[in-house]
Amino acid sequence: MPQASTPATKATPKTVIQYVLGRLKDLGVTDVFGVPGDYAFPINDAICADKDMRFIGSCNEVNAAYSADGYARVKGLGAINPTYGPGELNAIGGIAGAYAEHVPIFHLTAMPSRDLQRDRAFVHHTLADGSFDLFYEMAAPSVCARTIVSPQNCVAETERLISAALYHRRPVYMAFPMDTSNQPVVGGGSPEPAPQSNPASLESAVNAIVDAVTRAKTACVVPGILLARAGLRREATALIDASGLPFATMIMDKTTLDEAHPNYIGMYDGRLMEESVRAFVEGADCVIGLGALWSDFSSGAFTATLDRSKTINVFHHSTRVGDTFFEDVEMKDVLAALTARLPKCADGKRPKPSDLGVPTGTGDDKITAEALYPRWNRFLKPDDILVAETGTSSMGLGMAKMPKGATFHNQTLWGAIGWATPAAFGAAIAAPDRRTVLVTGEGSHQLTAQEVGQFHRFGLKPIIFLLNNNGYLIERLLCKDPETYYNDVAQWHYHLLPQALGCDGWFTARVTTCGELDAAMSKAESCGTGVYIEVVTDKYVAPPMAMKLHESTKALYKS
Amino acid sequence: MPQASTPATKATPKTVIQYVLGRLKDLGVTDVFGVPGDYAFPINDAICADKDMRFIGSCNEVNAAYSADGYARVKGLGAINPTYGPGELNAIGGIAGAYAEHVPIFHLTAMPSRDLQRDRAFVHHTLADGSFDLFYEMAAPSVCARTIVSPQNCVAETERLISAALYHRRPVYMAFPMDTSNQPVVGGGSPEPAPQSNPASLESAVNAIVDAVTRAKTACVVPGILLARAGLRREATALIDASGLPFATMIMDKTTLDEAHPNYIGMYDGRLMEESVRAFVEGADCVIGLGALWSDFSSGAFTATLDRSKTINVFHHSTRVGDTFFEDVEMKDVLAALTARLPKCADGKRPKPSDLGVPTGTGDDKITAEALYPRWNRFLKPDDILVAETGTSSMGLGMAKMPKGATFHNQTLWGAIGWATPAAFGAAIAAPDRRTVLVTGEGSHQLTAQEVGQFHRFGLKPIIFLLNNNGYLIERLLCKDPETYYNDVAQWHYHLLPQALGCDGWFTARVTTCGELDAAMSKAESCGTGVYIEVVTDKYVAPPMAMKLHESTKALYKS
């Protein structure tokens, strides 16, 4: 994950857009997702002219945002470049999702030239009221910092935004009036230093944690996404290794730490996932969250019950121990100090992480949940990137035991259906040497399905499982009458889609029985091409977690 | 087009959502486009439970907004129902486009229950900061009025929003906390009266116009979209009939008045379209705009030059004569008064509207612009709904002479590529008995192509022409280097798309020669099914208007 850094590229005088792109490259961003558009041409041009960067032409802007989100989950930072007005607004939902989930993305957009703005000209892509900063205003809640760029402020503002994006691990917004991008940079500025802990506050926080852990008969760690976003997985693993503490993971945080680690005890999601893990975590005297967020879904629809006084949470820049907050304490410093100071705990009696077990069904047997999810679990290999769409499939896969190095990605908090397909594309762009596996329900897939064609266009070979259960199953389980027709979707012939989208040479299949599924999965492993398998199940084939959620709607909605 | 009205449905006590839906039905809205979602279930449920309404499940939310936009262009008012957070934000670009183009849409969205809001609960679809009204705030610039609904304010707020939507012909936003929708309506309220002209101001405005026209040697009318949005086409046609005035139409306003009318003289777009029309309009002593908007594209990239003192414009609620504004003057009253009072003008020498002429090419000839656009023009029939995507194809079709009753729809001002495909679907839902013809470039189509499957799902039989010219042609013509790779798009096999999207039984074809195009168009006329024809041309096959725009970029961008 990128950390604040001095610019590596200082050389000759630069244009405004060259400066910004150069700094993004310093931070590891080499691909910008976008849809070109006239006011944005100078930005589009500069990206294409830079031999170390690629403009990844997305099918539409929200897909671009989701792809940048997937990219940033892998590389630590992403970027999009839609055009002014329609372009940026169509991306804003995806950027807001990245904000919610602490995924930093540079939202680079355009504006009409300052001359047109001064004239209050009646031009396309505006609301025709002479206002040009409305979309800049609308962007505010979706980003942690924003600016309208000029040659004078370019350096200082770019550095401020980099600093904000890395401090909060959230998106930032930069709008370039059309005439500014190619102007030479005029004003100065320099990178802001990385944040430092207040030594006294750090000492107090660490003392409090060490004290709580030392006093506890049993303690455990709950590593969370803030840890992953800060790029501190290695440091947290060192803490686990040194302390011997067991860790359980909540659904939003799945694979924050490696599930192949011997101290992993399983998934904790209140009463919705593993009962033995729930009992262990809730029975512990001290639960140390490392940037875990207690949302509705992560807390098992609020069925997780932890006495706050027994809990600790280490955030990016503060730490809470019971009811006491310690401010200006950097997560990495807390991890390092705890690694050095926590006592090594005894192994004790701990749950063993379960996997999804042995798949049922053979031959002409229908594909049930007991047939499907265990097969998917066994299909996964070390270092896979698994992108799981919000819905029953991600709930089923939440209980998969992920192989060493394999990562699980889901938009648990924001929960925009459709996110997974473009996010998987973005992740594959970020890590073309890893295997990307996408699992999505067909209802969600319909929102953003066109992005499938991009994998082939960019020479990527994902493995895509499309779960066709004839509608929005998760909604059938949460709404009043599961058969209400709004849960139905258009009946596509999904297995024909990749070819229509230009994915020549892919292996595609439509499977309705366990035998067909086995054959297709076996071919998928070895065929060496992109893969798209439509898995057809009965309408109500759902994994246990989804069924438990179905029983928890009153607690979930308070309505 | 709907006008303010007394509720037709007063009967028994209603729930909050029933009241709102009942009022929308009074105004002619019988179809709500949306994507269901958990907080929105009570709204989704109520729509499905109403036997006089349909929930039209769109593939995604921006497509829903574009469809409602197309629907409202035909029926006068539309509605969408995405869910809270991700749903509504993904629709916001489409709603902003409707705002820009004066298309009224009810944006009905949900919120978590008031209990969850009071708890500042950490729930999905939020930014997890305990704030629940951020998206309500973000919606502000995209709508002319908005509210968060409660049982107490439901009637009064619904009536206020109806009034605002009809007054401004722009979208409005209503958010329903999950627990409110099914509560009985408590508070009172009544429909706001339709706006009335100030008699003195009306008299002054009409006198000024009659005076200007009487003094003019030549005068002409430029009817605009505000007229169409207000549902005053018939009244404006009566004015033309009574006065004998000729009318020319700008590109954004195409078919506001019927192009088969004998007084129609052609398209006026500065120096970009018909020179004879430009000369006539700009040579007239008095140009009467009826709600026409002088945007960049409508003014031929600012090449239209009219002396303001010679121009009049009649807006919805005000009228400008030269530099004088008359406020509180209703468009319909101005039209009626002018119809009664304007002198009948002599026929004089006027341009005759041209059409696109005789198509060139036969047999194996490639499909050139001279082959294509005239063929499309001849293909059109009376009462067709033609939805033309922003890009070179709409510029080419701008010069088509539309048959009697046929309407041309384009999002000229907002210019969101991708709008046309879902908008055509919405228009077809609104007018299933008319023939809907969609013409779109393939780059734009990729943004929203999944909506093609909806036509078949709802038993509609559109005729879709997909122009495949290997990338974003309009952008090649406007950017610095036409060959820059951001103008390329993924290479789909478009003619295979309808089948993949479930359009069983459709006639689909891929044509590369004039002979193939003729055969396919002939079959399209008679086959009685949905039609999807991929028309393949060389990369730079563009109509004259696009080429002229290519030469006008400096004026257009001032950059």
Describe the structure.
Two copies of one chain form a homodimer. Chain A has 559 residues and is of the alpha/beta class. Chain A has 22 helices and 19 strands. In chain A, the strands form four sheets. Chain A has a six-stranded parallel sheet with strand order 2-1-3-4-6-5, sandwiched between helices. In chain A, strands 15-14-16-17-19-18 form a six-stranded parallel sheet, sandwiched between helices. In chain A, α4 links the parallel β3 (78-81) and β4. In chain A, α10 (233-243) runs parallel beside α12. The longest helix of chain A has 17 residues, at 199-215. The mean pLDDT of chain A is 96. The interface between A and B is large, with 99 and 99 residues.
Which features does this protein show?
19 strands; alpha/beta; 559 residues; 22 helices; 6-stranded parallel beta sheet; homodimer; 36% helix
Structural class of chain A: alpha/beta
Strand percent estimate of chain A: 15-25%
Count of individual helical segments of chain A: 22
Radius of gyration of chain A (Å): 24 Å
Q: Order of strands across the widest beta sheet of chain A?
A: 2-1-3-4-6-5
What are the segments of chain A in which pLDDT stays under 50 over at least 5 consecutive residues?
A: none
What's the arrangement of secondary structure elements?
The structure is a homodimer of 559-residue chains.
Chain A: H1 16-26, E1 31-34, H2 41-49, E2 54-57, H3 61-75, E3 78-81, H4 86-100, E4 105-111, H5 114-118, H6 134-138, E5 145-148, H7 154-168, E6 172-177, H8 199-215, E7 219-223, H9 225-229, H10 233-243, E8 247-249, E9 264-267, H11 275-283, E10 286-290, E11 311-314, E12 318-321, E13 324-327, H12 331-341, H13 369-379, E14 385-388, H14 392-397, E15 407-409, H15 420-430, E16 436-441, H16 442-448, H17 452-457, E17 463-468, H18 473-478, H19 497-500, E18 507-511, H20 514-526, E19 531-536, H21 544-550, H22 553-557
Parallel strand pairs in A: 1-2, 1-3, 3-4, 4-6, 5-6, 7-10, 8-9, 10-11, 14-15, 14-16, 16-17, 17-19, 18-19
Antiparallel strand pairs in A: 11-12, 12-13
Helix pairs in contact in A: 3-4, 3-15, 8-12, 10-12, 13-20
